[in-house]
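Dear all,

This email documents one entry for the complex benchmark we are building for the journal club exercise. For each entry we list the sequence lines for every component of the assembly. Then comes the predicted three-dimensional structure of the complex as a token string, followed by one or two observations. Please use this as the template for your own entries, and keep the labels exactly as they appear.
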Amino acid sequence: MSFDNKKLLAVKDLATTFHTAGGDLPAVGGVSFDMESNQTIGIVGESGSGKTVLSRTIMGLQQRTNVTVTGSVLLSGFEMVGASEDEKRERWGTEVAMIFQDPMTSLNPVMKVGKQIDETLRVRLGMSKADAKARAIELLELVGIPSPQYRYDAYPGQLSGGMRQRVVIAISLACSPKLLLADEPTTGLDVTIQAQILNLLEELKERLEMSVILVTHDLGVVATRTSRIIVMYAGRIVEIGSTREVFAHHRMPYTRALLESSPKVSNASHTRLTTIPGRPPNLLKLTQGCSFAPRCSYATEKCHVDRPELEAADEPGHMFACWNPLPKTRRTVKK
Amino acid sequence: MTETREPLLKVQDLVVTFGMGHHEVAAVAGVSFEIFEGETLGLVGESGCGKSTTGKALMRIIEPSSGTIELDGTDVVAQKGKALRNIRTRMQMIFQDPISSLNPRRRIKDIVAEPLDCWKSVTGNDRDVLVSDLLAKVGIDPKVYGNRYARQFSGGQCQRISIARSLAMRPKLLICDEMVSALDVSVQAQILNLLEDLKHEYGLTLLFIAHDLAVVKNVSDRVAVMYLGRICEIGPADTLYEAPGHPYTKFLLGAALEADPDSPVHGEVLGGEPPSPMNPPSGCRFRTRCPFATEKCAEIEPQLEEVAPGHLVACHYPLTIGTK
């Protein structure tokens, strides 16, 4: 397919609304972005910003009831929104795969890890039992699990958190997906193990020519591992651009607040952190204006009544949604 | 610095074991450190290294197997009954999960007042005034929110309420066990700043247990690094981060991610995983993952030795220190 190289993923006006007892909750409220193949995009935001719901919606994993998805998700030219379960299942694994945050709950605790990899291979690729086992062992080796023949027969409970996440990665890679959605893949892991897993993902991305969407709340994770980042707030993209540009020349006050409120190893001890007053908004009670306005020190009257749309910044591909953006030349505070 | 001053907390050879016989695990395997009045000691390490167990053993929530803990000259380990409860008022703990550490069905003013009610130290109108004052100090309006139930609050607010409760008895030492790790960055920054303010106002001494190196650096005067039940390095925060003496500290710092695309990326990544504390390696506990390990490391367990004033490293081959 010719457009494969151009646009692997095109998301347009994607909105996911949950119908709850308290009213309609717009978890994702109109998100558009494109992704080319062989790229790593980071999606960052605090809890409740809609980053997980967005990635699950791209994957086409929603409950069947009490949720409305509008807009479009074109995955290699195929429309995922409104597709039947069978159609989506055909794409899962081969086109798009997902890694979830908690490696323990994404594995079946009473099934050998090898069998869990086999399952995918046999069902999706129709491999024979023996072929699937051989391939599963190869995959375990690929993700850096020592003595894979032996680990094939291990149960998830016998593996450490880092090893389990490697198994989950092996399962997600079983059918060589073009796009891998990694939702907080390292959040529960220790820093040294986190570094191992992030290196592994980067290496596999190069080797298997995949694209990766890395969803995380940790700015440190995206800073050096992604080429572009999307900053989300209250279900919307508030800034998007190349990672370097967004870190150095962000225009949206929320991006700056997020960057400045995270403690840094290079700070001297007892450095006072910049805080964002207040809390993220209740999505059930969103106002007409900018969702960040109540917490923003630059907010004017306009911000409270009129929602800013994404507009282009200087660098191509860099966009932000703000009526009173930070000045163009601003650089982040460097050590 | 003031080296002659007496430490507020003195821990000697603290050992905490769980289970028995073949299943015995020394979660904390001989830890000694001191905390001076008014300072913050950060305790970092990966999960399973024994940092939380150390914190809980200090409070005797978990009984230490051996070793001594001295708070302000009083032996904590020897206390029993009322004397133990009495000494616990001088040290308080804040836990990781703010929501589950508060009873969801109680009003927050009662939660904060509970220590006072237990001791009947402050009663009647004074008690209500003090509770209101504590809530106001942590940024929660007692008039508006005092009568609400704990379940009605967010994680960040619950952590504020926990702080208020822990301050009710005016403790000297506050043990903070991963108190911000469940919070979002913007809320985390608020809580860390609040903690710094209260530390000055109440003259607190802190043991700040966390896995996040950046957070620990921001709050600590001195930092202790734990690996598999032992302290492998302890020293002033700034020098320890700038020139780590133990190879493990260096790898740990190398793995910490800085929110800066220009930061020197991925130094050497430490391979492998921590060995099981049920069967720790002979000699130096880190030797199985250490690129510099020699035969000596397998035979002799290195002890903490001073490499610079106040900076102790447990390694036979400490990395160059003081060159910076």
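Observations: The first strand of chain A starts at residue 9 and ends at 20. Chain A has one domain: 2-95+177-320.
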